[in-house]
Input
Amino acid sequence: MKNLIFAFIFITITTTAFSQVIARPGVRTGANFTNFTNSDSDSKTTLYVGGFLAIKLAHFYTLQPEINYSRQGAKSKFSSDYDTEIQYIGLAITNKFSPFKGMGLYTIIGPGINIKVGDNYDTNFNDDLEGFDFLIFGGLGYDFPFGLGAEIRYNIGLIDIFGRNINSNNHQDTTFDNLILNKVFQIGVTYKFDF
Output
């Protein structure tokens, strides 16, 4: 009898917990304002598009896996012939926190990985760029009740675009102040479907 009561309580708790989980697919797109750290290049305006699955686990927390396509790079101050463009397909784990119940305002933070799928650097300079980049990002957003949302994000890469690492012996002059990292400011819109 005791086991039956515990089984009933367990089933009731897990059913209640999982009935609160809501998963909604969505899309995101917007403008990238990109540049490199420790570079005298100018900022470049490009685009990003992506899809996500918003998994609402609590009224204040949503886990959102994403897949994105992003164009990044920088503009040369000397000639547009030397502008750098890098194209990435990325996976991100977005953690959305909504501090005010019933309000659409949220903050986001998370890690991601970008895989390079194209660039124009080898055409310009006969050299190769690093094939991937780890990144961290944070931002703010607002979800309207009808599925549309708006958000801003700041992404910073963690891997030098030339594949150099910080060297404690400084043989290659690769201290943190000399690493060339992607930095991206994004402004965009989102839409969550309600099937």
Summary: Helices lie at 2-19, 121-125. The chain has one domain: 45-192. The chain has a mean pLDDT of 85. Residues 105 and 142 are 4 Å apart (CA to CA).
